[in-house]
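Hi F.,

I've been meaning to write this up properly since the lab meeting, where we talked about keeping a consistent format for the predictions we share between groups. The idea is simple: the sequence comes first, exactly as it goes in, then the structure tokens exactly as they come out, then a line or two of notes. No screenshots and no reformatting. I'm using this chain as the first example so we have something concrete to point to.
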Amino acid sequence: MIGKMTRYAFILLRGEEEGFLDRIQELGLVDITRSVKPVDERSGAMLAVAEKYKGLKESLEKIQIPEGIVPQPVEGELETAVKDLLDQLSALREARKAAEKELAAVQAWGAFDPAALEGLARAGAPVHFHVVSEKSFREEWASEYALEVVAREGGRVFLVVVGEDSLPDEVPAPKTSCEAVQARLDRLQEEEQALLSRAAGLQARAEELEAACRAQLGDLDRYLAGVSAETAAEDHVVTFVGYAPVEDDAAVQACLDRMGVFYAADPASVEENPPIRLRNNKFVRMFEVLTDMYGRPAYDGFDPTPFISVFFLLFFAFCMGDCGYGLILIVLGLLLRKAESFKDLSPLVVTLGIGTTVIGFLFHTFFSMDIASWSIFAPIQGIFLPGKIAGYDGTMVLALVVGIVHISLAMVVKTIHETRTKGFLNCLGTWGWTLLIVGGVIVGGFALAGVLDKDLTKWIVIGLGVLSALGIFLLNDLHRNPLLNIGAGLWETYNTVTGLLGDVLSYLRLYALGLAGAMLGKAFNDIGAMILGDGSSYVLWIPFVLVVLVGHTLNIAMAALGAFVHPLRLNFLEFFKNSGYEGSGRNFNPLKK
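Output, unedited:
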């Protein structure tokens, strides 16, 4: 739900801004209206400093420290030490790459003394180096020239000729021996080990860079709040506007009273576009990140997160559709707790894994195997989803039913919200469509279940049709000409009928994605079974395990991607469109340390 806000207007004398903002930042409960991006040269420079700290920390943490490296404690100024380390390590690794390339070029020639080559050249017996292909090499060259084959590698022949030479493919003489290059490479590796030891010591202080980045961002936030102030009384007075949750009013006003600040507190209004603070339980709060991907609701809107939490979980489980994959997600979610960057996502991944496990079990699928045929589950066969419902695939029918329920709920939410904000008489058209579609779905469901007989169903449908037609065609706008209402109702009927059909069919993607994942997983199982045969050969178990393991890992990755994107689409498009949701709000961002 959307938390109520109190609007605060602060009036201060010029020069009191810094102290006021310091206290507000320490309080951490008031969202001072301000820009979220740099607005001048100073704020741009402050952001650049924060990004510099962040970049240094990320670059430092990317350095891989091999096992056995003993961290070297590093004292003194951290920023300079990290910069110097990164520069030295980059230069050293470039030098090492060059040395490795040079070693590969001279290694085939073996050990030699470059000074001796120069002496032979001065004595009139120069040494020529050649690299020719095996096809081009002729054995008779050895009888025509003072020739020695040094090495044969990769289809090439490395040879030297002393004295007279007219052979093809001559290359420049190596300027150094492989022994000298290898010695230089060893020294570079020793220097790199020393730098890695220093890097390990600096990584132990990486949190200092994180703290410096956070402090700089806090200063930037306070600066942006300061420059957002408006002046009055010939620049003698400055004013600020801020918002705080209603439940924090007592704490905020007690702090302001101690500061001696003049302020006015009033309930926030929609016209002022106050920041939005969502108040949900622990389960729903996990899905607020999905709402924020689209946009927070307006202050007079409704919070779609409770609906997203239920239906995104259900749709995700539909698309995965395998209790074995659900167990993998649960394990993955538990492992994410150990990763600092992803531990906030751990509860969401575990929850999605639990939902997938439950739905996958009802779909009687475990790593693309049908567990309904297993004797161990014979006593509980009745809880599994039947293969056919009314002659159609059970999963497909269930996907369409869930889609109809989802859209019907969206229409009910839209009707309630418009009635609350516009009044009942101003949304009779919306009520007409909700009665027709949602009422028709409910009546049809009762009729199919045998609760209502045929005659009663007919009269209820006629009554719903008449009431709906009045709202849709005649009373959709009480302030407009009835003929215009009829024309508008006909146009809306065309759009609604064609749109709803496409919306409902869009939920077939839940069935299609689950079916595709199950079939691909079964294909990997079948390939593994063909490799294994009757299982009598222990050697064949190795390729069997590899095929099944790699195949299902690939299938889980692809299924999880589709299970995230398509349920998100169904919520963002089908539900939001039919519920009239608009994500035009801004996030509540209190000024704090």
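Notes:
The two ends are 27 Å apart (CA to CA).
Residues 541-579 form the longest helix (39 residues).

If this format works for you, I'll send the rest the same way.

G.
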